[in-house]
Amino acid sequence: MAAAASSTDRPGALEITRKLAEICGAPFARFAGPADEVAGRTARWVAVPGGPHAAAEVLRLAAAHDLTVVPRGAGTKIDWGAAPAHVDIMLDTGRLAGVWHEPQGSSVAEIGAGTPLRAVQATLERTGRRLPVDAPSPGATLGGVLAADEAGPLRHRHGSPCAQLVGVRYLDADGELVSVGLPGTAQFGQAAPSARPGGSPAAGPGAGAPPGGASAVLGGAEVPGLDVARLLCGSQGGLGVLVSATMRVQAVPAGRVWVSRPVWTPLEVHDLVRAVLAARLDPAAVELDLPVPVALPRRRIPASHPSVAGRPDHPAVTGRPARPAAAGSLVVLLEGGPADVAERADRLTALLGPEAVVNHAAPEWWGRYPFAPGDTALRIEVPINDLHAAVYALRDAAGTPVPVRGSAGIGAVHAALPGSLPPERVASILAAVRGVLLARQGRCVVVSAPAPVRRAVDLWGELPTLPRLRNAKAHLDPHHRLAPGRLPGGL
User: Fold this and answer.
1) Measured over all CA atoms, what is the biggest interatomic distance in the chain, rounded to whole angstroms?
2) Is the separation of the CB atoms in 255 and 336 below 8 Å?
3) I need a labelling partner for 342 at 20 to 30 A (CA). Which of 122, 235, 401, 468 fits?
4) Can you say how many angstroms the Cα of residue 311 is from the centroid of all Cα atoms in its chain?
5) Residue 181's beta-bridge partner residues?
């Protein structure tokens, strides 16, 4: 707030405001207000360009005046990750919206970065198609989803949003509009191959994936430069400003069912997930929900009480202890043709046992994070055979059950620590969990946290790819003009 308020007092501030208004239009350029923050860092100006060329002019203005720029979509994940060193211009992508070049029957669609994901799905649904992306953040834009490489339950079969990329248009730090992708049909050509079911989730630099490497291969054709496009995934605007993305689309499945089973321990989850994957049922998602159990007061009920009359299996009658209430749920999504889905659902319920239930709607928690605003949110990524060890390690380090939810089928889950925990306590929990994960080729990343925690802990942990990320930043943004400090290593 103070930074924004003092903007009007700085030499040239009003002149920059006038130039931003000329570029974007008077209603779309202003001094920032108290809500225009990035992880607690307030911007000086907000600019909402009306198209790619206007956005390029904003970046050129920033370069001419040595100003920093942080892109913002809907702001649903604006507090994720590290706070930038400073924010001069917040470039709002809300007017870079629309679903373009998506003729009926096409396998790809070009989508403006500022388009809400819900609007994308509604538009595609009119022609019986969908984007196989289901990011949990309500109201998120496609650009924001890609910038955070945010994925929901469908990542089990289709990979992260980055895996759906066929091409992108983005602005570099100097305001040059760059198009990357496979030339040919529908702007960028062939669709990306599906992710291997049960494979590791794709992730951008912010999530710890190797930043860089060989060119991507799409449809059997090598695509020079698409590795750079995929660098933008997870980079939180630190390597380029997304203008549009050409994404793979598919037909909406005719049949969908959710098969759920109660679970009691992480080890039981481990055994069930292995059995589901071994059965080759081609699940679209395998999700786990382990909420913190609520301890209810117990009272002794006599066998003669009316509430247990006629229930010979009740503990009050048998004298045996009752099985504890389920600690959580394992839910498998099956998609496809109605007859095929029904046959696979029958096989799955036989595999999971008599407690398995088939539903035609997702559970209430499906596709939602286990954390709330103000919590310390963690993301754990580990080979599926070690997921139970990671959950146990988190419980042991915290000294109490911790809510865990996510894609058990690929070993990518989120967890929540109370925001009231002191920073040093969070740091000790992270150290213990990361120590367990290190030997298992896993990672624990702090997605978001209260400001004192964010300042006190290492958000990313060990990152072997940091040197390559540093090289990418030096190549794409040598003056550290784009979201400086948002990437690992303070880049």
Assistant:
1) 85
2) yes
3) 122
4) 47
5) 167
Comparing CA positions, the residue from 186, 180, 185 lying closest to residue 109 is: 186
Global confidence as pTM: 0.83
Query: Nearest-CA neighbor of 88 among 39, 18, 38?
Result: 38
SS3 label, residue 455: helix
Beta strands 165-171 and 241-248, pairing class: antiparallel
Region 388-394 average pLDDT: 94
Residue position matching structure tokens 């819900």:
118
Q: Is the pLDDT of residue 11 over 70?
A: no
Q: How far is Cα 242 from Cα 111, in angstroms, rounded to an integer?
A: 11
For the segment 38-72, what is each residue's pLDDT rounded down to a tens digit? 988 999 999 999 999 999 999 999 999 999 999 99
Please provide residue 184's backbone torsions phi and psi, each rounded to the nearest 5 degrees: 140, -140
Triad 421, 422, 426: Cα angle to 5°: 75
- Return the pLDDT at 232: 86
* String of DSSP letters for 331-395: EEEEEE-HHHHHHHHHHHHHHH-TT-EEESS--TTTT--S--TTSEEEEEE--GGGHHHHHHHHH
Rounded CA-CA distance 7/17 in Å is: 10
- Say how many C-beta atoms besides its own lie within 10 A of residue 74's C-beta: 20
Considering just the CA atoms, what is the radius of gyration of the chain in Å?
Answer: 24
Taking 3-state DSSP, the helix, strand and coil percentages for the chain, each rounded to the nearest 5, stand at 30, 20, 45
Residue 77's beta-bridge partner residues?
none
DSSP 8-state assignment for residue 305: S
Classify strands 328-336 and 255-263 as parallel, antiparallel or unpaired.
antiparallel
**What is the average pLDDT value for the chain, to the nearest integer?**
83
How many C-beta atoms surround the C-beta of residue 36 within 10 A?
23
Beta-ladder partners of 106? none
In whole angstroms, give the CA distance from residue 154 to residue 165.
15
Polymer length of the chain: 491
**Coil, strand or helix at 397:** helix
Distance CA 297, CA 478 (A): 61
- Cβ–Cβ < 8 Å for 80, 207: no
Helices 52-64 and 13-24: angle between axes, nearest 10 degrees? 160
| Sheet strands side by side (includes 108-112) | 99-100, 108-112, 241-248, 165-171, 177-181
Instruction: Give the pLDDT of residue 212.
Output: 31
pLDDT tens digit sequence for 134-174: 999 989 999 999 999 899 999 999 999 988 888 899 999 99
Strands 165-171 and 177-181 turn out to be antiparallel
Q: What is the DSSP string of 124-171?
A: HHTTTEE-S---SSTT-BHHHHHHHT---TTHHHH--GGGGEEEEEEE
* Neighbouring C-beta atoms of residue 485, cutoff 10 Å: 21
The rounded Cα 234 to chain-centroid distance in angstroms is 9
